C-alpha cells in the first residue's frame, strides 16, 4: 500500500513507536468508564467500541460495552440479539433494577454487552422530568463497575440527554473523528458540551483522546485534514490512526469484531495498537 509518510514518521506527523505490550492484571475493577462520543453520524464510534473492546479483552481486561444508541448497531455488531431482551432502556426507566441481569456475554471471552434497541429512542422523552435526569446512567453503572476493568459507552450521534448521561457517567471521553473536511466543524461544539458537563455535572471528566478514523493516506485531502486536526488538538490526537478499509463493513455484516473476523488484517492490528496506547496513557488499567 502507498503511504505518504516516511517510514519513521506516522500519519499524525509524530515518530512511529510501538507501545509496550500491556502487563497482565492481578485483579479486576473498579472499571474506568469511557464514553465514545461524536454527534456526527458514521464516524466510527460503534466500530471503535467493538474493536477496542475486543482488543482490550484480548489483553486480559474485563470489558463491558454499553449500547447507548437506539439503532442497536453495537449489539448487532457483536452478534447479540436485541429483540425480547432486557436492555439499557429498562435500566434507565427502572422497570428492571438489576443491571447484572441485562448483561450478555459475547463470543469474545472477557467482552460483555448491555444491549439496546429502538425502545431507547423514547428514553429522552420519558426521562426529561426525572429528578437528576443527567445522572441516571451513572447510577445504573455503579452497580457493575466492580466487575470490570473498563466500561465503553457507544453513544448515539446527538448531544441530547442520553449523551449527557454518558458524559456524566464517564471518567473519560474518546472522540472518533473521520478524516474528512467537515468532520472538524462539529468538534468545537462537542468540546463545548464536554466543558459544560465538566462545569455542572462531572468535574473530573477528561478527554482521553481524539482518534482519527477512516484515514486514506493515498489522498492529499485526508493527509491535510489530519494535519489540521493535529495543529488544532495537539497531543490530544492519539498516535494510532485507523485506516479506511472495506474489512469493517464486512465484519459488521458478520456480527463480529475485525479482531476475530480478520485477526491478521492491519486494521485489527491498528485497534490492538489503540488498546496499547490507551493503556500506556493510563486511560485504561
Ligand atoms: N476504518 C473504517 N474503514 C471503512 N469503513 C469503516 C471504518 N470504520 C467504520 N466503517 C464503516 O462505516 C460505517 C459507520 O461506522 P460506525 O457505525 O462505526 O460509525 P458510528 O459513528 O457509530 O455511526 P452512528 O453515528 O450512525 O452511530 C459502518 O458501516 C462501518 O462498518
Ligand atoms: Mg454507532
Automatic annotation (TrEMBL):
Record's signal peptide: none
Domain annotation AAA: ranges: 32-206
Region (Disordered): 1-25
Function: May play a role in septum formation.
PANTHER family (UniProt xref): COBYRINIC ACID AC-DIAMIDE SYNTHASE, P-LOOP CONTAINING NUCLEOSIDE TRIPHOSPHATE HYDROLASE
Family membership: Belongs to the ParA family.
Identification of the protein by name: ParA family protein
Organism this protein belongs to: Galbitalea soli
Lineage of source species: Bacteria, Bacillati, Actinomycetota, Actinomycetes, Micrococcales
Amino acid at each position: 500500500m502507498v503511504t505518504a509518510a516516511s517510514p519513521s514518521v506516522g500519519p499524525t506527523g509524530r515518530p512511529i513507536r510501538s507501545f509496550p505490550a500491556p502487563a497482565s492484571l492481578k485483579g479486576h475493577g473498579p472499571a474506568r468508564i469511557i464514553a465514545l462520543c461524536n454527534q456526527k453520524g458514521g464516524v466510527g464510534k460503534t466500530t471503535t467500541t467493538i474493536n477496542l473492546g475486543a482488543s482490550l479483552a484480548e489483553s486480559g481486561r474485563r470489558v463491558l460495552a454499553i449500547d447507548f444508541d437506539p439503532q442497536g448497531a453495537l449489539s448487532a455488531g457483536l452478534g447479540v440479539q436485541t429483540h425480547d431482551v432486557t436492555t439499557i432502556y429498562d435500566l434507565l426507566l427502572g422497570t428492571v433494577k438489576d443491571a447484572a441481569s441485562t448483561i450478555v456475554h459475547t463470543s469474545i471471552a472477557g467482552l460483555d454487552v448491555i444491549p439496546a434497541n429502538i425502545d431507547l429512542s423514547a428514553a429522552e422523552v420519558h426521562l426529561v422530568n426525572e429528578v437528576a435526569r443527567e445522572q441516571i446512567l451513572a447510577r445504573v453503572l455503579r452497580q457493575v463497575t466492580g466487575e470490570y476493568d473498563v466500561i465503553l459507552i457507544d453513544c448515539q450521534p446527538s448531544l441530547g440527554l442520553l449523551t449527557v448521561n454518558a458524559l456524566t457517567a464517564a471518567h473519560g471521553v474518546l472522540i472518533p473523528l473521520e478524516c474528512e473536511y467537515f468532520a472538524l466543524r462539529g468538534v468545537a461544539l462537542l468540546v463545548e458540551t464536554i466543558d459544560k458537563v465538566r462545569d455542572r455535572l462531572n468535574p473530573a471528566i477528561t478527554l482521553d483522546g481524539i482518534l482519527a478514523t477512516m484515514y486514506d493516506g493515498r489522498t492529499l485531502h485526508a493527509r491535510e485534514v489530519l494535519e489540521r486536526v493535529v495543529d488544532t488538538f495537539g497531543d490530544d490526537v492519539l498516535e494510532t490512526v485507523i485506516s479506511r478499509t472495506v474489512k469493517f463493513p464486512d465484519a459488521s455484516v458478520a456480527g463480529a469484531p475485525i479482531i476475530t473476523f480478520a485477526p491478521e488484517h492491519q486494521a485489527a492490528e491498528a485497534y490492538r495498537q489503540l488498546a496499547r496506547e490507551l493503556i500506556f496513557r493510563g486511560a485504561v488499567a
